[in-house]
Design a protein that fits this description.
Blueprint lengths: L1 E6 L6 H10 L4 E5 L9 E6 L19 H11 L3 E5 L1 H9 L5 E3 L7 E9 L15 E8 L3 E3 L2 H9 L3 E5 L10 E5 L5 E4 L15 H7 L6
Parallel strand pairs: 1-2, 1-3, 3-4, 4-11
Antiparallel strand pairs: 5-8, 6-7, 6-9, 9-10, 10-11
């Protein structure tokens, strides 16, 4: 049983994610984007952060067409667990595995800082170790983190407990302070903050491990 961590041209967080899961004793494999199949014993796919294809056209728009993504979409549609972080979240939006879209931050600048987040729904494997209303502090680093969805889409997210995390202080203009969401089936997750950068006390906090630890249930 393993975790497949995708690697695209321009990603820069795949080794951080590999290290984070190693702290939890999980088996991982980095999978190059030109591969057409996931490892046979994959139980979780992680799409890490970075700047796939230099964020040309739109963040995640080109990576969405990489050969491996066809396998990821099939994996997700069959109930497999998928986690996208930052650029990975953007790729999930572009691929249609999550609803909505990302726009440029309202201040038009790249933002890199720690951010307080509120746990909105914990009825999912990702946040199952948290209580609703918990406040966690996780780093963010993005230029296109301004989440948008139309009114009907927002109502659907709210009605189906798909909003995972909200910013306590909105750094990017994201609609409804949304920092992370999941699909209706609660097997595909996307968030802009980087839990893999908050896994050791020496880094300031290790609360990110508690997030990732939820996925150990499927391994």
């Amino acid at each position: 049983m393993m975790i497949a961590i995708l690697q695209f041209l321009g990603t820069n967080c795949e080794y951080d994610m590999e290290y984070a899961f190693s702290l939890l004793g999980a088996k991982t494999k980095i999978v190059w984007h030109k591969e057409t199949e996931l490892p046979k014993d994959t139980r979780l796919v992680v799409i890490p952060g970075g700047f796939s294809y230099g964020d040309y056209l739109r963040s995640g728009a080109i990576a969405r067409f990489s050969p491996i993504m066809k396998a990821v979409v099939e994996f997700a549609n069959n109930g497999g667990y998928v986690l996208g972080i930052c650029n990975g979240f953007q790729i999930l939006l572009e691929s249609g595995l999550l609803p909505g879209a990302m726009k440029r931050n309202t201040n038009l600048h790249f933002i890199s800082k720690d951010s307080n987040l509120k746990v909105i729904h914990n009825t999912n494997i990702f946040l199952s170790k948290f209580q609703q209303g918990d406040i966690v502090r996780i780093p963010i680093a993005h230029a296109d983190g301004n989440y948008y969805i139309d009114d009907d889409g927002l109502k659907s997210l709210q009605d189906n407990a798909q909003i995972l995390l909200e910013y306590v202080e909105n750094p990017n203009g994201s609609l409804g302070n949304i920092a992370g969401i999941c699909n209706k089936q609660k097997n595909v997750f996307g968030l802009m903050p980087h839990p893999e950068r908050a896994v050791e006390k020496v880094l300031g906090q290790d609360i990110g491990l508690k997030m990732l630890e939820g996925f150990l249930k499927v391994l």
